[in-house]
Amino acid sequence: MKITLNGEPHEVEENSTIAALLHGLNIPLAKVAVERNLAIVPRSTFEAVMLEDGDRLEIVRFIGGG
Q1: Is 54:3 a contact under the CB 8 Å cutoff?
Q2: CA 38 to CA 41: how far, in whole Å?
Q3: Residue-level pLDDT at 66
Q4: How far, CA to CA in Å, does 41 sit from each of 32, 45, 65?
Q5: How far is residue 62's CA from residue 2's CA, in Å, rounded to a whole number?
Q6: How far, in Å, are 10, 16, 33, 64, 66 from residue 49 at the CA level?
Q7: Run of H or E including 30
Q8: Mind listing the pLDDT tens digit for each residue in 13-56?
Q9: pLDDT at residue 64 above 90?
Q10: pLDDT score recorded for residue 31
Q11: CA-CA distance, 50 to 45, in Å (whole number)?
């Protein structure tokens, strides 16, 4: 299935969740914000939200510093 991830085409398996996508990208769930089709996805729902063909996702990683 095809989605757009941070402006680039990306392939994911059918029945994938946001959590599965993040896991496959080696991105810790606790350190990101995800926007799906112009709406912020609550972190508490990453395991439940199923990706759909044509979804547009933006993933922002939080980076600490000082």
Answers
A1: yes
A2: 9
A3: 60
A4: 11, 7, 25
A5: 26
A6: 17, 8, 14, 27, 34
A7: none
A8: 999 999 999 999 999 998 899 999 999 999 999 999 999 999 99
A9: no
A10: 87
A11: 10
Cα(11)–Cα(1) distance, rounded to whole angstroms? Answer: 6
Residue 30: which CATH number?
A: 3.10.20.30
Burial class (CB in 10 A: 0-12, 13-18, 19+), 13: exposed
Radius of gyration of the chain (CA): 11
Asked if residue 66 is part of any domain, the answer here is no
Strand partners, 57: 5, 36
Query: In the chain, how many domains are there?
Result: 1
